[in-house]
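Table S2 (continued). Query chain:
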Amino acid sequence: MPITINGIGTHYYFKRNLVSNPGVCEHCRRAATLSDYDVGLFFVVVYIPVIPLGRQMIIGECNACGMHRAMPLKQWEQLREQAISNGLNQLGQAPNSAEAALSLLATYSMFNQLADAWDLAAAIRATHGADYDTMLALGTWFESRQHAAEANDCFQAAVRIDPERISSKRIRLFDAMEAKKNSEVQSLANALVEDRQGGHEGVLLLAAKFLLQQQKFEEAYALLKKLLEKYPELKKDKEIRRSAREAEQGVGLPTTLVPPKKLGMLD
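Corresponding output:
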């Protein structure tokens, strides 16, 4: 990043070609708006640009912390052209390959070639709509671009192809909560708890909270009990502790799922 002391140093001027997208900052780890743009880097005296030092490509500037990566614009343009050319060649050699198409989609997105990315995404949907993994990956891409309707269409296509895959059950769980299908929520949540690969703690907590909102205290208690038996480290989590207490109170039990914290520790 440019450094200026007492008005003397380096500074950015003349921002161009701004493209902003939602994302997670690699520096502060917060959800934020990340911006790419090219800008002139100047040596400044009393904040007045004096000597141009070349144009820079600013990559992933976070609107929360201001951190970003930078490289010479010409170098970035060369990388972009080479990466896209490689991706097009790979897809040309294997035009029916979903993997090659998704790889090119990721490359377009990385370099903010959004019009090309959108056209390619539409082509992938049309060509590989019967492939489970492709629909799941494409739905995730649409979701990352905040195109909720298109993401949902892809996720639902994946569910229709194979409703019993664990990823499908996660999708179905969200659908069941939205439709307030209590018994289906409980059944799908139990299936996720039993999944050996794990990694479903967040969605399971949402399911437990949903059951509590529906005043299904016994079902919420049973789900939280299984969750804490599998992931005992979650007993330290404030949201888990609050939900566990609410479930215990709902079924008329003393605190058993989460032991009280030691004296002097705040909850």
